[in-house]
Structure formats: C-alpha cells, structure tokens
Amino acid sequence: MQSICKRYIAVAISGIGLAVGAQSALAVEINDKLSIYGYGHQAYMRTNANAYLDADKKGDWSYGALALVIAATLDDKTKVWMHLHNTAETTRMDWAYIDRQVSASLALRAGQIKMPVGLYNEIRDIKFLQLATLAPALYQEASRMTDEGYRGLGLTYNHAVGAGSFSWDGYTGQVVDLEVLAGTAKEKMRRMVGGRVTYNTPVDGLRFMASTYDSRLQQGGGLEGSRRVWILSADYKANNLDLKAEYAPMKFFGIKSKTYYAQAGYTLVEKWTPFVRYDYVTTDSTQSDDPSYYQKTATIGVGYKFSDNVGFRLEDHFNRGYALPAASGETVAGTGKNNWNMLVASVNFIF
C-alpha cells in the first residue's frame, strides 16, 4: 500500500482546491486553519492501432494519479494552496500560491497557479468532475492548445448584471511547462498575459466564456516565437443534463491549428450517466486533409457512481485520423492507421 501511495500522490491548488472542497464530504479538517482534500483515478487504456498515451494493442495501466489538496487559512481573507504531483512517470510540486480576498468582488493571487482557461483547465486532473476520463483534444497535452498553469500574478473580479453576473479573470507572468519541471524541457517559456470573461446567465446552470492568452517562448537552437489561443465556451448543467461545447483556434510559431467539441450527458436515477462527444482537432490547418494532422473522434460512454465519492467509467473513442498520436511522437506521421479506436475504463474518486 505504501508503494502505491508513493507512486500516485498529487496535490492541487487554485480552482482545483475549491472544486474538490465543494464536492467532497470526506475532506479532512485538521483544525480551523488547515484542510486536506483529495482526488484521483486509475485507468486502463487499449487501442486497436496507433500507440497513444502509452496505450497500444496490449493495453496499459499507467494512466493514474492520486491528488492531495492542502489549503492553509492565514486569516479571514487569505489562504495558501499547495499541490504536489506524483504519477507513474514523475514526481513534482505543481502549484503553490497565496490567495487574498480583497473585497466581496475582488480576489488577488500570486505564485504558481492553474491557468483560468476554458471550462476544464482548472479541473483537468480531476476526472471525477468530468463526464469522460479522456479529456477533449483542447485539454490533451499532445494538441498543445492549452497550458496547465503559470507563475505570476492573477485577479478575479465579479459583479452582477441584472439577474445574471460577470466574472473577469486577468493574469500575467510566465507559463509553467510541466515537462520542464519533469526534466524534459524542450522550450524556454517567457512572458505571458491572458484573460477570461464568464457570463452566468439568469438561466440556472447556463454560462458562456471567452478565454485568451498569449505567451512568448524560445525553442532549442534559439528560435523565438509565440503561442496565441482563443477559446469560446458554452456550458449548461442543470436538471441532470450536462451540455458543453468549445471552439479554439491557435497560432503557434506561425502554424495555425484549431479544435472544437460538443458533449452531452444525462444522469439517470442519480447513479448512471451515459454520455456522447464529438471532437475535432487539426494540428496544422494547412495540412488538414492529411490524417497525420487531423483527428475526428466520436465518443460514447457511461459512468456509474458507487457513492458520492467513488465512480466507474467505461468509454470508447472511435477515431478517424491520428493527429494526436502523431503529435505526441508515439505514432510516426505517415505510418498510422486512419480508422482506429481507443477503449478506456477507469475508477475515479474524490474526498
């Protein structure tokens, strides 16, 4: 048991901590100043062609993690969040920052922080809070569409507008590349600035978002360039229905790419949640007819909650094109199979 815990420890911060705390009835309150939350998952993946995420025809169990979120209250307006991450591949401290509630409407934070981008970025590691174990291409590392976090300063400002409300996020600093933390750095991240605006409509559970950020970076050999991403998001979650859709174009070192998805799930008898998703990504818009640079994915799956804190999920991803396996380097461009599928089964939990 000790070796398993050592292999799969993680600790998250920011919106992760808030999301875990809001969902968890089993959080450990050490005292009125210190709380510990957690989440994790263990997945089995198998493909019938095109190796991806360490999975192939033989199957693979390495897609798993355990996370512990530590929140320390300094005073009635100030908290510190910390995140240590340990998977089968790496061990690292991912996030650590201080959060100051300046007023009822304004919050400031400084440190290493989850980037407020789109619907899933702040909870991309918490599989329990998502419909599918395998995230949309927008949030998969191979697509290079979104970074997980940044080191710098950020703020959130909320205000009401009629029966609805707006939330504004702004941040600046330096992108944190987790591969750099893991010792496989390929790029040197430089300055970055970004923002997100969220409109919570008067309709219960319906919100719209627009996110963007621009980062300057340097690749090996001294080549300098930028990454500019725009994300438009729509989300409705109420009455057992969960609907999400996002569209994102990106320009990276002069290469244009884009992705979009639409997803739907419905919870039956508070335990079963069947879901479907259609996902499209092209890693180079000028070569979008080449299956090495595009991928269309139809996903069908079902989740089952054993309790409020433990669930099981089974899903199958039917793919045309193999842009993500090629981008990850696990399948050589021009040699992959055009039509292939990926089976994912997982147990996920939160406390």
Descriptive account of the structure:
With 351 residues, the chain is mainly β. It has one domain: Porin (Beta Barrel). Helix content is 7%, strand content 56%. The longest helix has 10 residues.
Number of helices: 4
> What number of domains?
1
Uncertain runs: 1-25, 180-185
Strand composition percent: over 45%
CATH topology: Porin
Look at the helices and sheets and give the structural class: mainly beta
**Percent range of helical residues:** under 10%
Numbering strands along the chain, what is their spatial order in the largest sheet? 2-3-4-5-6-7-8-9-10-11-12-13-14-15-16-17
What is the CATH homologous superfamily assignment?
Porin
- In CATH, the architecture is Beta Barrel
**Would you tell me the overall average pLDDT?**
87
Could you tell me how far the N terminus lies from the C terminus, measured between alpha carbons in angstroms?
18 Å
> Which H/E pattern describes the elements?
HHEEEEEEEEHEEEEEEEEHE
